[in-house]
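Q: Could you fold this chain for me?
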Amino acid sequence: MSALFETYTLRDVTIPNRVWMPPMCQYSAAPEGPEAGVPDDWHFAHYAARAAGGTGLIIVEATGVSPEGRISPYDLGIWNDTQVEAFRRITRFLVSQGTVPAIQLAHAGRKASTDQPWRGGAPVGADAHGWQPVAPSPVAFAEGHPVPGELTVAGIQAIVGQFADAARRALAAGFEIAEVHGAHGYLINEFLSPYSNHRTDEYGGSYENRTRFALQVVDAVREVWPDDKPLFFRISATDWLEEQGWTADDTVRFAADLRAHGIDLLDVSTGGNAAGARIPVGPGYQVPFAARVKAETGLPVAAVGLITDAEQAEKIIANGEADAVLLGRELLRRPSWAREAARELGGDVHVPDQYHRSV
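A: Sure. Below is the predicted structure, expressed as structure tokens.
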């Protein structure tokens, strides 16, 4: 039996295999009006195709806990009931294919209010559906980006509440797993890293202070998320900076804290918080960070980063480096990657009756 196609259980949720889809923004929702942030036919077709292709777990893209929490005006949101009802259509179909539906709850912080990537991705203002970003400190992400507004303590607590409200709506929308987005230079990551967090109050300075906001969000979400359902956290294991950044050592320490606060699995990525960081991109380049967390803390992990072929993915699971693999770009290219890998490795994967001729 292929390790990649063994089931995996967290709390009371069993995932049919270890081939998972990470959050990948589609930047395709309406930017304003009653349909703002609402998943539409594109989102349904996008996720449905990967579920029909045998993907065991699909994590819906970074979904704003508030309008200001979106990366772009075209991102999905989960701050109102119209969005909840539209998500139900997607979760119902994923479940019908044996796929576990998950959602990433996110706030973009100082990297918010940008255009669609295929239009350049530059910051946009009010004339293009944009807004003023917020952050732990008034430090712009990069040249050409606006200086964000510095969050007050009251503002921080309001966002903690928005994460909890979003988790309640995610549950109502039919999601079985929620993931808190703490990676890629977005708001939670901005608080974690001394590179972007220059505060001198209880939310800045020491490790304990810089992790306070993240743990408050986790606690607030875990309080409303059912005990029988898993909660994930996505982290950038390193800022890829030699000095003044978040490090792999910090990640290992924080993983233990997250476990104590009810996180069931760490989704381990890297980078995104420093525009000029040099990242040694290559096949499986982020897997060692996941493997270290798993080895040193025992917290389950998922590995990401240029995992593209079946044999590579199989070795990661079989060698105990991670409990699952998250395939991003490769699933964009090949929606039925899981089914193809199962044929190659001798694994068993769900195939829709309508596609039985392809087995």
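A (continued): Residues 153-172 form the longest helix (20 residues).
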